[in-house]
Amino acid sequence: MNLAELNKIARAMVAPGKGLLAADESSGTIKKRFDAISVESTEDNRRDYREMLFRSREAMSSYISGVILYDETIWQNAKDGTPLVRLIEEAGAIPGIKVDEGTQALPNCPGELVTAGLDKLAERLAKYYARGARFAKWRAVIDIGAGIPSMTAISVNAHALARYAALCQAAQIVPIVEPEVLMDGDHDIDRCVEVTQRVLNKTFQELRIQRVALEGMILKPNMAVSGKKSKTQAGVAEVAEKTVRMLKNCVPASVPGIAFLSGGQSDEDATAHLDAMNRIGGLPWPLTFSYGRALQAAPQKAWSGKANNVPAGQRAFTHRAHMNSLASKGEWTTDQEQKAL
Ligand code: 5MM
């Protein structure tokens, strides 16, 4: 493993004013997103949609450091035959790849999940590296509910995240470690903090046991937020303050950066929360975005599967990427947010 090189890539992924585009929706998830805009989820439509994003020159070169791709996309070519990976590289961004294979029911733990995909992972990583991927992503899913999460679920998911991260570094690929505590449910923000801290502590314990070099990884956590069905919804200042405190308690300073998931927050909430955290300042790591829905909901709607709408889709994507870039520097304002597209 060349740790200096891994560290260089990790730092580029969280470079000032830049963040990650999570465009790694698996076939089932992209179908759900396309259903919402009445677009059929065919291979060509998925290609056209992602090509539209990757050809958004301003967004891709000024605000996006890297793109997380799904297996289908990393092998796809644009309409003119250029590999989609090449479009990303030409814009100055780094291609990355989702390598987990989704979740499965966790035996003996009703209602809980474990992420699959470790089998033959070393072989897959070598192929992705040859295609241009310089970082990877694995998402563990932890749900909060009555009597859950169990220590078993936290433990097996942390173990798998660390196994994945160690394999990535051996393949000279920076692992994004994503332990997502879901915001579904009626729990309050303090319960989210309590569970997320347990999950992060266990994850870093496993990373250490498996000798993962923390300087060569990126953490992709959830923010501390109230459950969607909770009657008490924490405001922006409380989310920012509790998230920063939680991360300071659990994340070693040697981690090169933290790139949040949006997790179902509204576009504007995801931006406002990131901005408020960066205004607190004095943190040991850069805090940025690795959003899927909060970057893509607007361009998906603007595009709606019509070639004529590509410029509108690209403007919507550029606007969200720009707003999140400002938030990653603590410079976002509602005036900028409302500026006409
Ligand atoms: C883009 O969504 C990603 C893929 O999800 P599936 O494997 O379920 O299709 C997802 O992993 C994403 O990278 C993160 O959860 C962050 O996305 P959000 O939408 O929460 O910002």
Discrete helix count: 14
Rg from alpha-carbon coordinates: 19 Å
Write down the CATH topology. TIM Barrel
Q: Which percent range fits the helix content?
A: 40-55%
β-sheet strand percentage? 5-15%
Low-pLDDT sequence parts: none
Strand arrangement, major sheet: 8-7-6-3-2-1-10-9
The CATH superfamily is Aldolase class I
Task: Return the domain count.
Answer: 1
Bound ligands: 2-O-methyl-1,6-di-O-phosphono-D-mannitol
Order of SSEs: HEHHHEHHEEEHEHEHEHEHEHHH
Largest sheet: 8 strands, parallel
Please, could you describe this protein's structure?
With 341 residues, the protein is an alpha/beta fold. It has a single domain (3-339), classed as Alpha-Beta Barrel (TIM Barrel), CATH 3.20.20. The chain is built from 14 helices and ten strands. It has helices at 3-13, 27-36, 43-54, 57-63, 71-74, 84-90, 121-131, 151-170, 189-209, 236-250, 267-280, 293-303, 310-328, 334-338, and strands at residues 19-23, 64-69, 94-98, 103-105, 113-115, 135-142, 174-181, 218-219, 258-260, 287-291. The strands form two sheets. It has an eight-stranded parallel beta sheet with strand order 8-7-6-3-2-1-10-9. It has a two-stranded antiparallel ribbon with strand order 4-5. The model has no long low-confidence stretch (mean pLDDT 98). The structure holds 2-O-methyl-1,6-di-O-phosphono-D-mannitol (5MM).
